[in-house]
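Narrative summary of target 7.
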Amino acid sequence: MNTLTKRNNMSSSPDQSKRKTWILIVIGIIVVAFVGVSVLPFINSGGNEPQQANNPTSSPEVQQQQEDLDAQARGYEAVLEKEPENESALQGLIEVRIQQGDIEGALIPLEKLADLNPEQEAYRILLAQAKQQTGDLEGASDAYRFILDEKPGDTQALQGLVDLLLQQNRPEAAISELRNTLETAENKETEIDTTGVKLLLAQVYGRTEKFDGAIELYREVANNNPADFRPVLGQALVQQRKGNEEAAKPLYEKAFNLAPAQFKDQIKQMTPLLTDENTAPESENTEE
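Modeled conformation, tokenized:
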């Protein structure tokens, strides 16, 4: 057993498990969950800039909280000076930096943690997102490609890279990346979620106003996956963006009915074409 393995075993305490869970929750917030919203990105297609509330007249409670976070950060940094690979301290420092809104300050410990856990893709995804947010677009691209080199077609890494290319006004490069991934799936014995990749490609078509291509691809996915709400919702979004509400409304209704319960409210909030009347359960619309 090597030193790193021993260190990982020694640090698998309940506190570390809780901290790792918290970090993964943060990742879930920062990284768009592909399964749930993979047909939505062309709404708010511009980059989301971080919003920080800088209040020069902070209350004593807020000031005390900042001082506590500073003290925690110094404590973790002291541990890392002696044990640079202490994962508990690395995770704690990342947590503190995120709470402080200091994304740049989280980069070094996050990169270290990602290197120590190459099998844990979530850390590398968060690293790529953090680099992108701080303006290091080349570093973000490298982080996404690090994952894709090991797992071609990884949906979160692929979506992150595509969003990055679109941010750089390189839609054709994004389209080429996705088409190449589909070719890889056809030509190699590599397990790739081709449905997810096609949905992502349809997104790009929608975001770049290639509406006919988007609708055609969404229809193809819907025909092959009749129980999946995402391609139906994608068609509705494109039709509404084209101004064709007559075509969009029944698609929204169908997507709403197909969607799992946790996504129904989100779908309703996306469009005024869905009302309480046309989304009520059938039992509520049937008089006995």
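Confidence is low (pLDDT under 50) at residues 1-13, 18-57, 282-288.
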